[in-house]
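Weekly structure sync - notes
Attendees: PM, LS, DV (DV joined late)
Agenda: review two folding runs queued last week.

Item 1: First target. Sequence and structure tokens pasted below for the record.
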Amino acid sequence: MNDTKLTYFQEEDILHLAITDEREGGSIEISPNVTAELNEKGELIGIEILGASSFLRDSIVETVQGKLLGLPRAGSA
């Protein structure tokens, strides 16, 4: 069974990805405006992106520009 749910809150411009319906036990900011939600065991159960429209637009533009310029992807040698 797949419990994954993607929800966009337009008024707040928040994108929420729930991997499971487990109760949140904590969270960690993994980059500005991106938070990883964790269960009681510290396992990833969701991701929240604030300012989602700008974040996604900028990520896509950066990826496309990198491909057009032939730049290596992050983490590749």
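Item 2: Second target, run right after the first with the same settings.
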Amino acid sequence: MNMNKLMKQAQQMQAKMNKMQEELEDKTIETTAGGGAIKVVVNGKQQLVDLQIDPDAVDPDDVEMLEDLILAAVNEGMRKVQDMVNEEMGKVTGGMNIPGMF
């Protein structure tokens, strides 16, 4: 295989991946917990961009439950974003598993 051709393909794939990462920043995932009592929105860069808490979910005598609901919603959002990122990057890399790429 021609080394120049291989390098050019690698550069093209890198450019596509950079573009995809920029596009992922604008994509969001919304998840809820506690039947909608907690809603979180996470972007493609795995940043929590919105958190909404239904006032009825706030019970001063049961702060632990509220904490658990927030953790559950945030963790689910992060998991879904990672799945989305893996799927989108798989399209760019043609399904190649390249450790450390994303």
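Discussion on item 2: Residues 63-93 form the longest helix (31 residues).
Action: LS to circulate a short write-up before next sync.
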